[in-house]
Design brief:
113 residues, alpha+beta, Alpha-Beta Plaits, five-stranded antiparallel β-sheet, two-stranded antiparallel sheet, 3 helices
Length: 113
């Protein structure tokens, strides 16, 4: 299953170049069920010695993206899209429900609607 989220902000959003962990945190906080969020974060699904979270996400896709070499940041012009995928429909349902109920999300210190 796939979930595409479109986010907006009043001005361009500045994030560190390596922002993946911030998006991952937003995803865990976005889950409706805190037990599922905790389970995926702490344990995941184990196969032999490896653990899998069983979701993946795209890079953030802004209308325009500017790289600030000195600050090592990206400035993304809204709207910003994010695609999250998982083979487990329950995970996607929890994310969709959670994001809809929250109304806004945070990526690091940045609040997006």
């Amino acid at each position: 299953m796939q979930l595409t989220i479109t986010l907006t902000a009043p001005e361009p959003v500045e994030l560190p170049v390596h922002y993946g962990h911030l998006v991952q945190g937003m995803i865990y906080r976005g889950m409706e069920n805190p037990l599922l969020s905790c389970y995926l974060h702490e344990h995941g699904f184990q196969l032999e010695k490896r653990r899998f979270k069983l979701f993946t996400f795209s890079r953030l896709l802004g209308q325009e993206v500017y790289f600030n070499r000195n600050k090592k940041t990206l400035a993304l012009t809204p709207p910003i899209k994010l695609v999250i995928c998982s083979p487990i429909s329950y995970i996607m349902q929890e994310l969709g429900t959670g994001f809809l109920r929250q109304g806004d999300v945070r990526i690091g210190d940045t609040r997006l609607i």
